[in-house]
Structure formats: structure tokens, C-alpha cells
User: What shape does this take?
Amino acid sequence: MAFLKELFQKNSSTLLSMFLLVALPVLGSSTLSYVLYRNQALLEQLTLEQSLIYFVVIAFTMAFAITPTTFVALVTGFYLDWQGLPGMVLAYALAALVGYQIATSLDHGKMLRFLHHFPKADAVMRELKNDSWQLIILTRISPVLPFALMTFVLAVMRVERRRFLLGSVVGMLPRSLFFYWLGTKAQDVFALLNNPDTGTTGKLLVIGLVIVSLFGLYFLFNRALKRALGGTRSPE
Assistant: This one.
């Protein structure tokens, strides 16, 4: 109890931000779904300049957890077809970078300094940071782990920024490509957002990505815990 009390007292802004990053996507996607329902031609026939503005806007909405990444992939695929894919990938990268900068500015290293008072937790965190490539990719491939929240967590852990950015893009691609493809095949955007029909193969793919992510993260945490308790360090 003392640990939790001190955790909330010294990291209240960080924890509040993490809570909002979980809650906001639900509100944001519901609101934007309604907007698209009332204005289904809103994003049709965009000019090049309008498309660039669109990608910048969705980058910031993803960074601030206003729109889930799955929502963005479906909508972009529906309206812009495959020519919009490079823009979506760049928007993901920009969203990750913006989220990383915001998280580090809000946290200022407070969480890691707090963990220094708890040697075992601090040691586990260091071990996970040493495995940051695997950690980043595993947190990104799962469709159920919120993009903005995972960005915040990884930034608080102080994973190296260039590694974070590349790992985020690589990890996001499998699920993003799948939902983008669904968007290109859809006939009605509102029906797509309310019930994206992934089919049997799609459901198996999503389940497979979730399983890989969960078991991979479990393996990393378990290995980090054993190394921390055993006093060994993994190489950088």
C-alpha cells in the first residue's frame, strides 16, 4: 500500500495522462463515426494539399489518443485507397514521434527516478530497456494495446528515440495493412466502422497477433525478472 500511495503522489500527472490515453479513443472514435455518418462524402476527392493536411491532422489525433489507429486505417483505406498508404505510414511515424515528445515532457524522468527507490523494480525496468527492440515491436503488433498509451509507456521508460520510431513503424505494419485492406474493400464507411467484417481468416490473424504480443511480452518480462533477481545483465 505504501508503494502505491507514493506512486500516485509522485507520479500523479503521468498516471492521469495514461488514464486519459485509454479513455479518449473511445470518445473520439464515437464522435468521428457520427461525423462521417452525417457527412459520408467528407473525405472524398481530396486534393494533394488537402490530403497532406488530412495526414498531419490524423497524426496529431492519434498522438493525442483522439482516434484509434485501427479507425484511421479503415477510414484512410476506404477514402484514399492504396495511394494513401504511404501517407498513413508517415502519419503513424509522426504520431509516434509527437507522442514520445509529449510524454517525455510531461514525465521529465519522474517515473524512473521513483523506481530507483525500489531496486528490484528498477532492475527489471533496466532489463526491459535492454530488450527495447523486441518490447517496442511486441507492444505495437497487438490490435488491443492502445497506440497512444504504449507510446507514453515506452517514452517514460526512456527507450532510445530512433529505435522507438523504427520499431513502432515496423510493429504497426502487420495489423495496419490488414485493416487498411479492409477499408479498401468496404462499400459503406459507417457500416465498416461499426462492424468491420474481418472474415474467418482475418479473425485468426487478429487473434494470432494478440497471442504473439501477449506471449512475447510475458517472455520478455519473465526473462527480465529472472535476470534482475539473478543479478545478471543482458547486453545492449
In short: The CA atoms of residues 140 and 168 lie 6 Å apart. Confidence is low (pLDDT under 50) at residues 232-236. Residues 199-230 form the longest helix (32 residues). Residues 2-230 form one domain.
